[in-house]
Design a protein that fits this description.
single chain, 98 residues, mainly beta, 4-stranded antiparallel β-sheet, two-stranded antiparallel sheet, 1 helix, globular
């Protein structure tokens, strides 16, 4: 598992390490990058931007639903503790289009 700082390629904000698992998306705009095959392995060659398109309930939290802007693959990531909840709520409005 690789938990590292990065600069978001969508919003250009600096993103700190998550600290409790591998950071896999930006907490400010929720975008991710298609870099993992398995969480934290950084072995995917696609490297496209993963656009957040929806949200689903998962246990006592949420999963963000993404679609890769390069290859079209859909992917899900668990919400991080520091994610912008206003954006999570906005994504919940897309539930009827998925």
């Amino acid at each position: 598992m690789i938990d590292e700082m990065f600069t978001c390629e969508n919003c250009n904000k600096k993103v700190d390490k998550l600290g409790y698992t591998a950071r896999d998306h930006c907490p400010y705009c929720l975008y991710s990058k298609h870099v993992d095959i398995n969480p934290g392995d950084r072995k995917n060659n696609c490297k496209g931007m993963l656009k957040p398109i929806g949200i689903e309930k998962f246990k006592d939290t949420f999963k963000i639903i993404y679609q890769c802007e390069k290859c079209g693959q859909k992917h899900k990531n668990i919400k991080a503790n520091d994610d912008d909840m206003k954006l999570i709520i906005e994504l919940s409005k897309n539930a009827n289009i998925l």
